[in-house]
Amino acid sequence: MATVSFANLGIGAWAAVWIAVAGVVAYRARRGDRHRAAAWMITVAAFLAVQEDPALCIWYASVPPSVDPDGVLGVVHAHSRGHMLGSGVFAVAGLAVAVWVAHVALRRGERWAWRALLAYLLLGAAVDIAQVLFIYPHGFPVGATPADGVRGFGWPQIAAWIAIWSFALWFSRGEAVTRAGRKPSLTHRSTPENG
């Protein structure tokens, strides 16, 4: 139990460092380009999210239980391992696309980008929160206890990625609408007749 508490403390410190980084990014951009700051905060959040679900899925599919007790190499059918690896890679790719959307479209103030990043946040956060509350608590004091009684560790990192991504969208929300509203329509051309 002491190991789990120590692990939660370490992960909590790790998460706090990245929350502080996001805070510094936001503070430095408070009168500047909020979209750029939001893009970097989403990058930080995605970095934390990758470590939690996709990277662990890939890791568990790649190692035997002798290396990691949760490793499934040699334990489950290759078909199952293939799906674990595939889902991990797809999740990493999805996060990479989200980061790209943040750095390209959100920085340009495109409203669809803000909405797409919100949708990604809502889906990812819902899955992680449901996982913590109903499947495996990652050391969170509330929620289901697995059959083996081990509550685990890691919830601060999950909370951090959700909080940072949420804050990034909140931080850029007004500017996304304003900047998008000021952009000229791609179908409207200024001519002497229409000004």
List the topology elements.
Blueprint: H1 2-28, H2 34-52, H3 54-62, H4 78-106, H5 111-135, H6 155-182
Q: Give, in order, the helices and strands.
A: HHHHHH
> Shape, please?
globular
Spans of at least 5 consecutive residues whose pLDDT stays below 50 are 183-191
Mean pLDDT: 88
Give the CA-CA distance, first to last residue.
72 Å
Count up the domains: 1
**Helix segment tally:** 6
Q: Considering DSSP H and I runs of 4 or more, what fraction of the residues is helical?
A: over 70%
What structural category characterises the helix and strand content?
mainly alpha
Instruction: Compute the number of strand runs.
Output: 0
**What's the alpha carbon Rg, rounded to whole Å?**
20 Å
Largest sheet: none
Hey, roughly how much beta strand do the residues contain?
under 5%
Q: What would the keywords be for this entry?
A:
transmembrane, 6 helices, membrane, globular, transmembrane helix, 195 residues
Overall description:
This protein is mainly α and 195 residues long. It has one domain (2-177). The chain contains 6 helices and no strands. Helix 2 packs antiparallel against helix 6 (155-182), helix 3 runs antiparallel to helix 4 and helix 5 packs antiparallel against helix 6. The radius of gyration is 20 Å and the shape is globular.
Provide a brief overview of the structure.
The N and C termini lie far apart (72 Å). The protein has helices at residues 2-28, 34-52, 54-62, 78-106, 111-135, 155-182.
